[in-house]
Amino acid sequence: MTKARLVFRRRLAYPDGAVREMVIWQLSGADPERPQGLKYRLYYGSAEGKCIVRYDNERGKGDHRHIHGKEMPYLFRDARAMLADFQRDVDRARRKS
Predict the structure, then answer these.
(1) What global pTM score does this model have?
(2) Which of 20, 30, 31, 55 could form a disulfide with 37 if both were Cys (CB 3.0 to 4.6 A apart)?
(3) What are the extents of the domains in the chain?
């Protein structure tokens, strides 16, 4: 099992009760499933706990995102770009609600 070190964690509760949580771990090394050497989970959900946007790199699935229940691959470039892409998807979802 690969040891991971927490390198980034941010949580925000919006006034309407929705929650955004972003967590990134640095792994002890890269591997074929996580060539960037990171494990991450970026989540945005409603006040009722429904997942609206999520980015993660679960083993067996690689980098991918979920938006309104639809799962699709995600092209990971770097952590900064991923956080920006995630926030853009959260902003779009919030405008639609």
Answers:
(1) 0.92
(2) 30
(3) 4-96
